[in-house]
Amino acid sequence: MLDVLKSLGPIDLRNVRRDSLLAWIIALPLFMALLLRVCVLPLTTVLWERLQFDLTVYYPLILSYFIIMMFPATYGMVIGFLLLDERDDETLTALQVTPMPMNAYLAYRVSIPALLTLLIMFPAFPIAGLGNPSAGDIFIAAITAAPLAPLCALTLAGFSANKVQGFAVLKAVGFIALATVLFSYFVRSGWQWAFGIIPTFWPMKVYWALGESDPHVWRYVVIGLAYQFVLLALLLRRFNKVIHR
Fold it and tell me: Which helix (H) or strand (E) holds 143?
């Protein structure tokens, strides 16, 4: 893994410097956090003054969607389309005849978006300014959300033949994994656990539980991580079959 990082890390950094769009996408989550601060805080004041509607009650839902879910989805999307490009250019085929093990290459590719997700959340919450979670709570939520990035990347790369299909898969997965799971916030009965089949539910649940000081939060962390790693293993197997066809 270290050898792969030494070989591909400098190349990826050069590509980021040359591609302004790629650099912008990497910085996009912080812009989203700033946008939350600029838009949501004034909206909260307006809604309370005019309608006596307390938007602060829904801050956990807003933060869980735009930070806990959207950050890893953004980075996963970038890596997913990169893998599609490398497959179309037969770069992955060429790699199979080099000394670099394919598994090491894939481990490098999927670990980068997870690491970015983990690191970017620490400045994102203070920038957003919607609440004041502790560094420990941010770390726990970030650890649980980080596997979503490689899951998104491998879903795109494993079930899309090209970028056009990739956008179609992105829309379908986005609706199921990002939009549908939002409804679970409003379900307070046991039926809420039915959303657990969607992997994005668990990082959001962990963040909500941290805010509510739920004593079972570590149970949700363990279940969420275990479930995501199982899905990750299945998607890696799927992607390996695709590139070896």
Answer: helix 135-145
Residue range 109-122: average pLDDT? Answer: 88
In this structure, the chain runs to a length of: 245
Q: How many domains does the chain have?
A: 1
Whole-number Å distance between alpha carbons of 33 and 133: 14
Could you give the CA distance from residue 170 to residue 150 in angstroms, rounded to a whole number? 14
Measured distance CA(164)–CA(162) in Å, rounded: 6
Separation CA 36–CA 16 (nearest Å): 26
HSE-up of residue 86 (Cα within 13 Å, Cβ side): 24
Question: How many whole angstroms separate alpha carbon 34 and alpha carbon 18?
Answer: 25
pLDDT of residue 245: 66
3-state secondary structure of 153: helix
35-70 pLDDT per residue, tens: 999 999 999 999 999 999 999 999 999 999 999 998
Over the chain, what is the mean pLDDT? 84
Quote the CA–CA distance of 115 and 132 in Å, as a whole number. Answer: 23
Q: Using CA atoms of 126, 130, 131, 137 in order, give the dihedral in degrees to the nearest 10.
A: -60
* Tokens matching residue 115: 């690491």
The span from the CA of 99 to the CA of 76, in Å, is 26
Count CB neighbours of 171 within 10 A.
10
Q: Two tokens at 144? A: 């649980």
Q: What is the pTM of this model?
A: 0.88
- Which domain covers residue 237, as residue numbers? 2-243
